[in-house]
Amino acid sequence: EPEVTQTPSHQVTQMGQEVILRCVPISNHLYFYWYRQILGQKVEFLVSFYNNEISEKSEIFDDQFSVERPDGSNFTLKIRSTKLEDSAMYFCASNRDTTKNIQYFGAGTRLSVL
Amino acid sequence: GQQVMQIPQYQHVQEGEDFTTYCNSSTTLSNIQWYKQRPGGHPVFLIQLVKSGEVKKQKRLTFQFGEAKKNSSLHITATQTTDVGTYFCAGYSGGGADGLTFGKGTHLIIQP
C-alpha cells in the first residue's frame, strides 16, 4: 500500500540552526500538508500546499517556516532559525481529492532543539 | 477560528468494557474524520463521516455524525488490548486544501 515517507525520523539541532524536514507524498496525490504535534498534545495544522504554492497556513506558520516542492516527488519544510519551542513531531500528509480530504500521514520526524 | 473539542482526555477501562469518545466542533463541518495514534506512532486514518446523522461501523467500532454536522462520537464495544492508543477526531470545513482541525484526542488505557 502506498505511503507517505518522511526523513529523517529524528533530527537533533542546536537552537538557531536551520533544519529541513523531508517528505515524499503518495505519488498520485496533489495536496500536501505539514502538521506538528508537541509531545502529549494534539496535532496542529501548519500549512497546506497545492499546485506549487501555499494554499493555507496557520498562525503557527510564521516567517521562520517555509515549504518547497523542489522536484516531482519531495515536499520539504524548512525552519530557518530553530527555537526550543519548535521541538515536536512534524507530520507530513497528503491527499488526492479535497472533496473528501482524506489525509494520509507519514510516520513523522521528531525534531529536538537543544 | 474553528475549534474542535474532544472529551474525555483520558479513559481507563477494563478489557472487555466499552469505550466512547465525543467530539464537538464550534462550526458546522463538511466532514469529520477519525484517526488512531498508537504510542510513538503517527495518526492513522480510521473513517470519514460526511452526511448529517451518518452512522458507520467497523467491526467493534461505531462512528456517528450529528444531525447538525457539529458533533461526532466513536464507540468501541468490548475493548481489547490492541485498541490502546489515542483517538483523534479531525474536522474539515471544506473549501479547498484546508488543513484538518484536530481535537485534543482521547487516550484509551486498557487494564487487562
Structural account:
The complex is a heterodimer of chains A (about 110) and B (about 110). Chain A has no helices and eleven strands. By secondary structure, chain A is mainly β. In chain A, strands 2, 4, 5, 6, 9, 10 and 11 form a seven-stranded mixed beta sheet that branches. Chain A has a four-stranded antiparallel beta sheet with strand order 1-3-8-7, with no helix packed on it. With about 110 residues, chain B is an all-beta fold. Chain B is about 0% helix and about 55% strand. Chain B is built from no helices and eleven strands. Chain B has strands at about 5, 10-15, 20-25, 30-35, 45-50, 55-60, 60-65, 70-75, 85-90, 100, 105-110. In chain B, the strands form two sheets. In chain B, strands 2, 4, 5, 9, 10 and 11 form a six-stranded mixed beta sheet that branches. The mean pLDDT of chain B is about 95. The interface between A and B is medium-sized, with 28 and 25 residues.
Brief write-up:
Chain A is mainly β. Chain A is 0% helix and 50% strand.
Characteristics of this structure?
heterodimer; A: mainly beta; seven-stranded mixed β-sheet; four-stranded antiparallel β-sheet; about 0% helix; B: about 110 residues; mainly beta; six-stranded mixed β-sheet; five-stranded antiparallel β-sheet; about 55% strand; globular
Alpha plus pi helix count of chain A: 0
> Sheet bearing the most strands of chain A, described?
7 strands, mixed
Bin the strand percentage of chain B.
over 45%
Distance between the amino and carboxyl termini of chain A = 36 Å
Biggest interface pair, counts: A-B, 28 and 25 residues
* Secondary-structure element order of chain B, N to C: EEEEEEEEEEE
Rough outline of chain B: globular
Topology, please?
The complex is a heterodimer of chains A (114) and B (112).
Chain A: E1 5-7, E2 10-13, E3 19-24, E4 31-37, E5 43-50, E6 53-57, E7 65-68, E8 75-79, E9 88-95, E10 104-105, E11 109-113
Parallel strand pairs in A: 2-11
Antiparallel strand pairs in A: 1-3, 3-8, 4-5, 4-9, 5-6, 7-8, 9-10, 9-11
Chain B: E1 4-7, E2 10-14, E3 19-25, E4 31-37, E5 44-49, E6 55-58, E7 61-65, E8 71-76, E9 85-92, E10 101-102, E11 106-111
Parallel strand pairs in B: 2-11
Antiparallel strand pairs in B: 1-3, 3-8, 4-5, 4-9, 6-7, 7-8, 9-10, 9-11
